[in-house]
């Protein structure tokens, strides 16, 4: 199993497709942060204009932590697309290249090969989120400095988190974001076992996410009974890391449900893969 996993990791990280997400993030994050630096915090001032009428704000609130949190809010819908580029290629790419039969003549079982590919997919998702975290926080702190974190919560008052507490909040947020992206990767991995072209899983994953997001975010009572059964309802669990007081029970409930989806997606993938008639 160890040698299979090592081979899958090497094979994945030797493909040019694997680095599309890293390149996109490496280009986008500096552009966004330099644009925010150039505008000098115009958007930040409009956000806090009402607050300054009642409170005297001290310190550097327009800092690297604030910029990173804004970037996370803006990119969490787009990162799944980058994840699916690799996750959707794990099995479908083998079918397209006609290498499945060659792989399966090895003594390793189909279950072991599938597990190695799935772990590789999860590892890729982790490294992509980690790269986003290191680049956005590192560059943000270099350009804007550090300080307390001002968090604009949708439909609620602004929350300020003390500077000493902010690093651990970001560790928690990116850990939860990784867990959410693992759910997305598991779905793309499932679609990859069904089709023989890597484009299908990418389009299918994004189509499901978009449709489910619309259902889970629209304030329509008819959808209330469906929302708890949609994995997209829990993808934003990382945002709860920035509440004034971390809602641990809600976070654990959401991560448990996402874990159930991950296991379910993988279970269906395993059932399809071990019974699949490999013709090429």
Mean pLDDT: 84
Please summarize the sheet with the most strands: 2 strands, antiparallel
Query: Which regions contain 5 or more consecutive residues with pLDDT less than 50?
Result: none
- Kindly provide the radius of gyration, computed on alpha-carbon positions and rounded to a whole number of angstroms: 21 Å
Q: Could you state the order of secondary-structure elements as H and E?
A: HHHHHHHHEEHHH
Q: Give the amount of beta strand, in percent.
A: under 5%
C-alpha end-to-end distance: 23 Å
Residues in helices, as a percent range? 55-70%
Number of helices: 11
Helix and strand composition category: mainly alpha
Strand order of the largest sheet: 1-2
- The beta-strand count equals 2
Give an overview in words.
There is one protein chain. The protein has 11 helices and 2 strands, in the order H-H-H-H-H-H-H-H-E-E-H-H-H. The protein has 280 residues and is an all-alpha fold. It has one domain. A two-stranded antiparallel ribbon has the order 1-2. Strand 1 and strand 2 form a beta hairpin. The longest helix is centred in the middle third of the chain and has 35 residues, at 110-144. The protein is globular, with a radius of gyration of 21 Å. It starts with a helix and ends in a 5-residue tail after the last helix. 34% of the residues are buried.
